[in-house]
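re the bet — no i am not wrong, look at it urself. input seq straight from the record:
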Amino acid sequence: MTPRPADARADDEGVDAAGAAGRPPVRLPDLATVDVVDLARALCDIPSVSGDEAVLAGAVAEALAGYEHLEVLRDGNAVVARTGLGRAQRVVVAGHLDTVPIKDNVPAQVRDHDGETVLWGRGSVDMKGGVAVQLVLAATLTAPSVDVTWVFYDQEEIDADLNGLGRLVRTHADWIAADFAVLCEPTSGAIEGGCNGTLRAEVRVPGRSAHTARAWKGVNAIHEASHVLNRLSWYEPAEVVVDGLRYREGLSAVAVRGGIANNVVPDECVVTVNYRFAPSKSVVDAEAHVREVFAGYGVVVTDRAPGARPGLDHPIARSFAETVARATGAGPGPKYGWTDVARFAELGVPAVNFGPGDPSLAHADDERCPITQIGHCARLLAEWLS
């Protein structure tokens, strides 16, 4: 492969590695020769909390622009690199650049944990390990058996309307058109098909205000909210089989607010609930279910996103699942959390989750990823794509 000038084949926004005001640019190691774990560690150490991905996006774009087999495009802090080999099919491999805020867990370290060597630090699981796999393979797979679009996007960890992949879907859907997609979210190196949908709603409990010295004159909305909480305590979440995978649902209170002063009986209490629903349900079905559970109360839906079916009936998906099963002895499982595979589903592109790291450690203060999983995911993706 022949390196090219850093600004070659980029869009109008260029590939400048400079980021936030006053912050110097950074450069990534040579992607063709770097060890994938070393690269993951370097990525963890580049500040990239949601909304602050400019430096990392610039470094990614600059590094990828040096390879003749890739066309590099950029939209804000989302970077797309794609082959144009004229293959019969195209696969998208995507991952997000941002992390949740750090908490005394950078710089990243390679350390021993319970007899296992891990990459420890913010982003090691969610999802700099997966991004490192993408970057190394983007540079080194010069002649894959399918055309590949590598997508690195911003602002996944915050409000859905800011999500960089969602922005690409709205403004540059042609950049990410494909027959199949792999999202490198953490799955402990297994395939997790589709994802649950998610809905947040506010359940409003009315009361009547009064002075607390004469509390009997009012109706305490916070006390009345116990009836809403009791419904949640008694609620039995469903398990739903979708295309052979069993998805577990959940309905949880995630916030309670009420009261205006320490000497006033509150006249309203609001319980915020989060419903995770199987991908066989539509958002309309999910909303109707939440309203049924809380019948008699005002329900205001504040956020909702559909799930995605597993997508494993597509021939490309089956070939990938077979590649992973041969190496691990395990078949695909369901993805319980919502992920951006749902955005590909909106485009009619079947997609699965596959990446290094235990998803239960994502966002944890002791976030850590076994280095063997990073190498495992790189090897299996390379084998399948080539």
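see?? The longest strand covers residues 197-206. told u. also Confidence is low (pLDDT under 50) at residues 1-19. so pay up
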